[in-house]
Design brief:
Strand content: 5-15%
Shape: globular
Length: about 80
């Protein structure tokens, strides 16, 4: 038996074109992207440290679904700065 609330909602959603500024080609994200765990291994630190670096804006990351993905390019730049030994 279907949930009656779902039946009420059927047909109420419509496809809407996202605003021009929200389209993916406008984003400034470079590949490859690593998971937080992979980024931690790459830097030799734990996941908690990676999240801290993201929060402080020292490395670039994006949210995709329920995951946080880190730009490898930003990890390389971070390592070049030599702020983490």
């Amino acid at each position: 038996m279907k949930n009656p609330k779902n039946k009420e909602r059927e047909g109420r959603w419509e496809e809407v074109e996202p605003p021009e500024e929200d389209k993916i080609e406008k984003w400034d994200v470079s590949t490859p992207l690593l998971t937080v765990a992979e980024a931690g291994k790459y830097l030799g630190v734990g996941r908690k440290m990676v999240y801290g670096l993201i929060e402080r804006g020292e490395i670039a990351a994006v949210r995709a679904g329920g995951s946080t993905l880190v730009e490898k390019k930003s990890l390389d730049q971070f390592r070049e700065r030599g702020t983490l030994t």
